[in-house]
Amino acid sequence: RPEDTDGEFISLGSxxxxxxxxxxxxxxHGRSTRSTIERLPPISTGRIGLAVSDDGLNWKYxxxxxxxxxxxWWCFDSAHVGLGD
Length: 85
Description:
mainly beta, elongated
């Protein structure tokens, strides 16, 4: 689990890890603590974050790469983004 995510996530899930050159990259999805979409189930989808590591054990959170769209009428469709292989 990446450290120091600034309290952005209630829960994390489905990490996907790949090695590129000399660095490990981990993408994961998580439910936001700041979600404004009402009546969402307590599952770990909603935002996709990225963490990197030099050794595959100690991860540094880099930030969000995809999050829910709360400004458009179709925001319900981006409330459950997740990862696959």
